[in-house]
Design goal:
Elements: E1 2-8, H1 29-42, E2 51-59, H2 67-80, E3 82-93, H3 100-107, E4 113-119, H4 123-129, H5 135-145, E5 152-158, H6 165-177, E6 182-187, H7 195-201, H8 210-226, E7 230-233, E8 236-238, H9 245-251, E9 255-259, E10 264-266, E11 270-274, H10 278-286, E12 292-296, H11 299-311, E13 317-318, H12 319-325, H13 328-343, E14 347-350, E15 353-356, H14 364-371
């Protein structure tokens, strides 16, 4: 399985917490779409013998594009690659872009999955984040989208200053009430050089507290599990048969090509990343050059990435895979480092698989870093 990720580097306005690559200047939008289409064509030989099963429009805000622009890019993928008969085609969208007419237009296109950036159903949270939509738009767009799409995901953010457990649970309950089959939920993080980081530094916003975020994650996990959702990855919850193929592929270390400025790619051996500068990206593509840096992964790099991704998921880390692909030294080291976390009931062994416990899930990234191999090549 392989996937195509297309980064749309435009937003109407900057959310205070966001450090993804985007521009609020839309003047080069048409030129960017043409460049994205050209990059897809330039890279057609990378997956010459592969079948593309997912196409994902991320950003930025992909829903700032019109339907014809989205269809042009999808057509470009079909021209360059062999695509499966029923690919998962996801569009990230913001509620303020999802008018009734635009939802209908998207539903008549090849797009078959919407990922809607709700973030919160409370007005005060949306204002703190500087979201472009309000609480009523959040609910309206979901109601309208459900009339045309069966496969819908929404994003929610927890751990915000001043958010009580009760209000957070009300957010989750509201999402459940819409019978959305997939919910992605992330802890608010204060990224350097963001407006939120500046507000915290100046004392205008309270610092984000790990204890609050951990309590919110427990509420999230318990509430959604009781409602029939599977936590197939720490930040992703889905009803049966609604796991995101795109998201699952990342966590299972499948191959993917990233198109657009700042987009990342992975072919199983190398990781590549495009320049995160729109003008430089446009100029390079105009000259039929790929503005990409590439890193060849060592055996240790691959092992560490597998530990990081595996512990975040319900699939865990396979000891037999470690033994077969990396060697007995890696397996012994992993078991040695994991022993204290097993004793603390943060990890557990299920036959051949190392997994995070319910208590250990929120701490999985930190635990994984302690399991990394640092000195073997």
């Amino acid at each position: 399985m392989t996937g195509i990720y297309i980064h749309i580097p435009f937003c109407k306005q900057a959310c205070h917490y966001c450090d993804f690559h985007f521009s609020t200047q839309m003047g080069k939008k048409e030129a960017m779409v043409r460049a994205l289409s050209k990059e897809i064509a330039l890279r057609k030989n990378e997956f010459k013998n592969e079948v593309v099963e997912t196409i994902y429009f991320g950003g930025g805000t992909p829903s700032v594009l019109n339907v014809s622009e989205i269809e042009l890019l999808i057509d470009s993928v079909y021209k360059a690659y062999k695509v499966s008969s029923k690919p998962e085609i996801t569009l990230e969208a913001n509620p303020d872009d999802l008018s009734k007419s635009k939802i209908e237009e998207f539903s008549n296109s090849p797009i078959n999955r919407l990922s809607i950036g709700i973030q919160s159903f409370f007005e005060e949270d949306l204002k703190l984040m500087n979201r472009a939509h309000n609480a009523s738009e959040a609910q309206r767009c979901i109601q309208q989208a459900k009339k045309h799409f069966k496969n819908i995901s929404i994003d929610l953010i927890y751990g915000m200053p001043g958010m009580t457990n009760e209000r957070w649970k009300q957010n989750i309950d509201k999402a459940i009430s819409f019978q959305i089959p997939h919910i992605s939920s992330y802890a608010l993080t204060v990224e350097p050089k963001t407006a939120l980081a500046n507000f915290v530094k100046k004392g205008l916003v309270k610092p984000v507290e790990d204890e609050v975020a951990q309590a919110h994650f427990t509420v999230l996990n318990d509430t959604l599990t009781n409602a029939g959702y599977n936590c197939y990855e720490i930040s992703n919850f889905a009803k049966p048969n609604y796991f995101s193929k795109n998201n699952s592929a990342y966590w299972k270390q499948k191959k993917y090509i990233g198109i657009g400025p700042s987009a990342h790619s992975f072919d199983g051996i190398r990781r590549g990343w495009n320049i995160n500068n729109n003008p430089k990206y446009l100029k390079a593509i105009e000259n039929s050059e790929l503005p990409m840096e590439v890193e060849v992964l060592s055996k240790t790099d691959k092992y560490n990435e597998y530990i990081m991704t595996g512990l975040r998921t319900i699939w865990g880390v396979s000891l037999s895979k470690i033994d077969t692909e990396y060697g007995n030294k890696y397996k012994d080291y992993l078991l040695q480092q994991a022993a204290k976390y097993i004793e603390q009931h943060l990890l557990y062994l299920d036959n051949d698989t190392l997994l995070a416990t319910k208590k250990g899930k929120f701490l999985a990234d930190g635990i994984a870093s302690d399991l990394f191999m640092l000195n073997l090549k």
